[in-house]
Fold each of these.
Amino acid sequence: MSELKDRPYHHGDLRRALIGTALAMLAEDQNWAFTLREVARRTGVSHAAPYKHFRDREELLRALARIGFVWLGQALSAAMTAEQASSRQTFRAGALACIDFALRNPGLYRLMFSSDADKKMDPQLHDAAMETFGILLKLLEEGQRNGSFRAVALNALAAASWAQVHGLAMLAISGQLLEEKVGPEPVCAALDVLLDGLCRPQEPDSHLASRR
């Protein structure tokens, strides 16, 4: 995730330098109220220079959001390709990775799901978001094939999963998961409840079933 950080501007690399500056400003201030003029000043270039690569501030913000989805996808893939014993454990690892990503990049995470990251305006942003969402779909499909997850409509499983994990991430970065409200370790507790709903009930042992 550090490929755009700590790289000084040099001729011919202006777009990367502008993006790196904007990402640093976003991480510092946790919002994207900055202007292209301010990004240019912090990058050490003329006020007109950013317009060689970005039509307006909104186009720059969409580029940042696209990078965010790429990074999030990398974080999910890394967490979910480790050796887990079950689809349930893999899902849990991915969910925790998503929430950890949000906590480490709160401003970027909020931007990714804001109205300023209009995916209809940027096909590349749309594709990056869908590719990241596809990681969840692939896991749910595999879990259904191996009998771990309930055999219901895949889009219903995906919607419930994404809503819960994204909601936990947003609550976490907003500091709303207070122990007096939701108890200790609320993220793990909420994920356990979600997974209890996603996973198929375990079949009783045959010898126990025959005694009923």
Amino acid sequence: MGKKERSNIVRIGKAIRANKKKFTTTLKNCSRESIPGELITIVREYPAVVPTGSEFELLQDVLSSTDNVYYKPRRRREYQIDSSQLRSWQVKGWEHYADFVGYCQTWGLSHHTQDLDFIFNDEKEIHD
């Protein structure tokens, strides 16, 4: 017995369907991944700290002995930055996902460079 005869039309149809499925899933993944994350910045302000004891005396001596020198206490600001919502391509410095993918494809980097992925996937890391 010889080889089973296959229709070229059926073979082309299967190839097209497989390629179409592959294209649509990668397009969906690309569209999901391209939604940028958000950098959350919280600014807390605290009232100015007034010097006490010997610091206050030294400050008064300096202010009284020199002209055009004033003491203006400033509020203390504390900045808290949360970058956990950012995507890995944003952490790497890219503004647009399409630019990042184009760079990776141009330089032949597979899987869009996984050099910083260990930061986001600590539980998947294998510890020996």
